[in-house]
Input
Amino acid sequence: MLDELSFPPIYRPCRVLEGSDPLEAAIAAAKDGADPASLFWLDSATDFACAIVLGPDRPLSETLAAVHVAMVALGDCLGATVPPQVEVLFGWPDRLIVNGALAGGVTISVDPALWDDPEDPEPEWAVLGIRLAMTPRDDAPEPGMTRQRTTLFDEGCGDLTTGSLLESFSRHFLLWTNRYLSEGLRPIADMWLPRAAKRGENVELKFGGKEWRGTLLGLDEKGGLVLGETKTPLVPLTDVVRKPTWSLD
Output
């Protein structure tokens, strides 16, 4: 069991024991009217998992930008703690890439009925989930045998603890949320771009039965991906994040 963690006062922390899912707990609480900034975190020394109840006050297409706020917060959190030779990048829309391999990511959950609503309504509730692969699973291949997935331990970050990362992430997420609320997505997009995997490269994306090709240029004002040299220059978040594009299982 982790020691009691220290979070900024705005959060309402809730410890979740191993064997339970913080994301599921947060979604259930959000549906029951939990306060925004309720923070559900997994009490585990080997798994980083947390979920935050959001307070949506804008249409779904804009609420989804919370994914990028969380990614930038993760980038800052890890950038300040991992060894300098460890490269931390963002795989649009929701993946965390460490030294070229998947190490975690972000999810966003809302009422499923909203995804196909053409009116772009404001969600009654929304929950952000974050997971990081801290240490290898017992059945994982030897380090270096696969480049599809990795862990922070395998990349030389064995001194990091889930407790310290949770505390750090909560502070960085609060900072960037405040920036987003006061200045919009532009400062987040400007911080996201330098860590964008395949920035300036030709990419081929396949999500939800749709395909996009083009040069990865950056984010638009709602967090969609801007592509160059293509007939479809924008990939909206609403088309790709109804389910996570990644898995650590």
